């Protein structure tokens, strides 16, 4: 749960004073994750409080986040689950979101020091905040637990007009040995199924048959 939307909350992990609500939300998320057999849970950091300067509250928010992440890691380890933290860009999507770059996320994960906490890297947010996608994927690959995609700047299908060459990035992920899911976190420009034409085209370019879950066409 992302907290109280009426109060403008978008996650509770790094929000001082909301530790009890974070723990309650985590327990609920674990129940849902077990029910649908999903081994990964996104632990949202939350927003810088209204009226506060980011620099003035960064230290306290990071301390809170680390405390909550260590607690979450211990709970999730009991269920053989992984916790994910996702940087969300503060230039377009959410100016007040506390966690906004992969560099910040990597530093926090290092301080937390739990092997079942990983980076949820959304290419859309990463491109907007930092670019340098190839090097960032290579640098942070050992930390990555999930990948999400959307074209920049429209946040539509990866073959829509934009800045990112997704076929190149998909091949880079393959060469790095990524075997996880790629989440399509974009807003379809039209019909959802028709919008998946980019995936069919990518399968064809790689010699894969549709619907055979990655079996190579002989």
UniProtKB/TrEMBL annotation:
Entry EC number(s): 5.3.1.22
Keyword field contains Isomerase: yes
Catalytic activity field: 3-hydroxypyruvate = 2-hydroxy-3-oxopropanoate
Domain of life: Eukaryota
Broad EC category: isomerase
GO BP term, example: glyoxylate metabolic process
Keyword set, alphabetical order: Isomerase
Residue intervals of the Xylose isomerase-like TIM barrel domain: 10-201
Active-site residues, as the UniProt record annotates them: 86 (proton donor/acceptor), 185 (proton donor/acceptor)
Molecular function via GO: hydroxypyruvate isomerase activity
Cited function: Catalyzes the reversible isomerization between hydroxypyruvate and 2-hydroxy-3-oxopropanoate (also termed tartronate semialdehyde).
Annotated family: Belongs to the hyi family.
Protein name: Putative hydroxypyruvate isomerase
Protein's organism: Crypturellus soui
Lineage: Eukaryota, Metazoa, Chordata, Craniata, Vertebrata
Gene that this polypeptide is encoded by: Hyi
């Amino acid at each position: 749960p992302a907290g109280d939307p009426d109060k403008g909350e978008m996650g509770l992990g790094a929000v001082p004073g909301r530790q009890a609500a974070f723990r309650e939300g985590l327990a609920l998320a674990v129940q849902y994750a077990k029910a649908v057999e999903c081994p990964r849970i996104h632990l949202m950091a939350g927003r810088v409080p209204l009226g506060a300067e980011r620099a003035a509250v960064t230290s306290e928010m990071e301390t809170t986040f680390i405390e909550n992440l260590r607690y979450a890691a211990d709970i999730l380890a009991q269920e053989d689950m992984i916790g994910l933290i996702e940087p969300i860009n503060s230039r377009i999507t959410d100016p007040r979101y506390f966690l906004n770059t992969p560099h910040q996320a990597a530093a926090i994960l290092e301080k937390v020091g739990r092997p079942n906490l990983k980076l949820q890297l959304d290419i859309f947010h990463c491109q907007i905040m930092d670019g340098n996608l190839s090097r960032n994927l290579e640098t942070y690959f050992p930390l990555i637990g999930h990948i999400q995609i959307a074209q920049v700047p429209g946040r539509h299908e990866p073959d829509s007009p934009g800045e990112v060459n997704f076929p190149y990035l998909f091949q880079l992920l393959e060469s790095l040995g990524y075997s996880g899911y790629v989440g399509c976190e974009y807003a379809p420009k039209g019909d959802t199924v028709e919008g998946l034409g980019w995936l069919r085209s990518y399968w064809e370019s790689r010699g894969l048959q549709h619907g055979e879950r990655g079996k190579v066409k002989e």
